[in-house]
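During the second half of the funding period, the structural biology subgroup turned its attention to how the target accommodates small molecules. The most pressing case was 3-methyl-2-oxobutanoic acid, which had performed well in the primary screen but for which no bound structure existed. We therefore specified the complex as follows and requested a full 3D prediction, including the ligand pose.
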Amino acid sequence: MSEKLIIFDTTLRDGEQSPGASMTKDEKLRIAKALERLRVDVIEAGFPIASPDDFKGVQLVAENVRESTVCGLARATDKDIDAAAAALKPAVSSRIHTFIATSPIHMREKLHMEPDEVLKQAVSAVKRARQYTDNIEFSPEDAGRSEIDFLCRVIEAVIDAGATTVNIPDTVGYNLPHQFGGLIRQLIERVPNSDKAVFSVHCHNDLGLAVANSLSAVLNGARQVECTINGLGERAGNAALEEVVMTVRTRQDMFPCDTDLNTQEILHCSRLVSTITGFPVQPNKAIVGANAFAHESGIHQDGVLKSRETYEIMRAQDVGWHANRMVLGKHSGRNAFRTRLLELGYAFEREEDLNAAFSRFKDLADKKHEIYDEDLQALVSETIQEAADERIRLVAMKVCCETGEIPNAHVTLLIDGMERQGNSTGSGPVDATFRAIESIVHSGSDLQLYSVNNITTGTDAQGEVTVRIDKAGRIVNGQGSDTDIVIASAKAYINAINKIMEPVERAHPQV
Ligand code: KIV
Ligand code: ZN
């Protein structure tokens, strides 16, 4: 019998620490629900002390996720731990994850603390967290560059204090696979009470080794991997969940353990995270890239047609790839619409939101005839945006483009209930539209990224636009979709402006 490998997803915490990947609490909830359907064991929903918004984000996930354990991050201080416990209160199953750095460089330069003081603080943090829950994770930050004798002392002490998971982070992505695997083996062998806790790993990808290091650790006894969808995360990111999970599943001849994940949900999670954060997935990315299962060369195609195993080691369907399926059309009723949304994991609590989504669906079906799952997902995003009481809304727009003429846009917005109009020319229709919007809102932000993707195939497909804007160092993303990409662009820009207008002060856990 294979042992269980616990999957701890930190897309909503470490993933969100990636510059530009900030998410609203409603976006976090959507991702958390998708992770729950994927059946990840633990969802690290955020760092509650960072800001009131982060606190609410963790609380919202705790209130709504039933099947996965919800975790909150806390530095090794009473106020962090108390905030994490308060945010996690509504959860069916919760975990507090507390950490303090143990490497000489972090203790000396960042914490200005002696090793014994660090050990004392680690123990007292675990004891404090233990007052709230039995499910405690402790991480010695920068373990990958810590001295092994000191690490062994700290780990033994925190397990004695009540830590049930000990997570070994390679915080700066410095380790090599054989070295990191060896570290995990030695820790398990040398710490006298190591059998009382699950050993976990958390690897960063600075040298492109996060997945290899995580897998090496699993081969050496780790039974939890911390990872993120699409490998999102601080700097070069974390270990990619889809790669870790599919390697272990595909190479059961090598691994003594397996996950409980419903891998068919992987692609959906990947797309959702990519859309919400505006971080595109490269086409040649393993498992979830557009080319991951595409065979270009004639020899490969011939081989795959004769026998799939000649060139494919996994089945595309097992990670959620399927040809675009027409699911609904112009004549589909409200019931069919609601049922398909439920199958996709979306349940609108308020009847008026379902009605609003259904009326969008009818408008879209008039323009597009065949509606795919991907269209429904975009439609749900729009309905959620609308329900979020955004201050600025698009009422109408008119854009004129003609060969030899300068494009011109006229935009009408509703701002706090008041109609306002703006006009502008631009180098193209999108530029003119953004300038017209700016002439009304004066957001003072800079555009960092503009990207358009087709949601499905065909020229009648909806375009999905992501914009990233920056104002005084704060970066947010906005999304919009429509069969008209200039309208989709306006919606995305307005969505981003709504977010940037809400001032938020956030603490970074590791600085
Ligand atoms: O990379 C790291 O060390 C972390 C810890 C908070 C676990 O993210
Ligand atoms: Zn990290």
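Two results from this model are relevant to the next phase. The first strand starts at residue 3 and ends at 4. The mean pLDDT is 93.
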